[in-house]
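Regression test case RT-17, inverse folding.

Input:
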């Protein structure tokens, strides 16, 4: 703190904003992006704006939500899902939560499974003699037609 206080030629630095719970300024931050417990991108740059409650909320484009696994049929019916808008995640996808951990630069989102594209991930370890080689992954995507209600959509295949 001495460096900031004893330099007369520098303007005063106001750190009061960082004493508050949601005291970070709006802007673009590189974050580790997690959705439903899975890290999607370790260094994604996300723009944050301040909402009506004074908290930072991420501005995610429809392409970002599709990358996160949101069902395209659900996203096309969501009000305000445009590339230029910045709606809150819970307003866009009911039941969703978002938490921005500024100290660890981590954006953690939870999205209900009913709004997600259903995927089954299968890991197969490769064996060569007695050594186990790196596993490979098979992803199976099951997508219900838009006319089928979410509760009637098939769930992920378990193998």
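Golden output:
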């Amino acid at each position: 703190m001495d460096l900031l206080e004893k330099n007369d030629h520098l303007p005063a630095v106001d750190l009061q904003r960082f004493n508050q719970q949601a005291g970070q300024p709006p802007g673009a931050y590189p974050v580790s992006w997690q959705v439903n417990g899975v890290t999607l991108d370790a260094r994604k740059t996300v723009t944050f704006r301040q909402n009506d409650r004074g908290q930072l909320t991420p501005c995610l484009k429809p392409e970002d939500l599709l990358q996160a696994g949101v069902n395209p049929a659900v996203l096309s019916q969501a009000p305000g899902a445009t590339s230029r808008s910045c709606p809150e995640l819970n307003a866009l996808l009911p039941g969703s939560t978002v938490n921005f951990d500024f100290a660890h630069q981590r954006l953690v989102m939870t999205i209900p499974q009913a709004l997600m594209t259903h995927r089954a991930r299968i890991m197969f370890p490769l064996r060569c003699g007695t050594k186990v080689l790196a596993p490979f992954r098979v992803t199976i995507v099951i997508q219900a037609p838009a006319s089928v209600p979410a509760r009637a959509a098939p769930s992920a295949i378990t193998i």
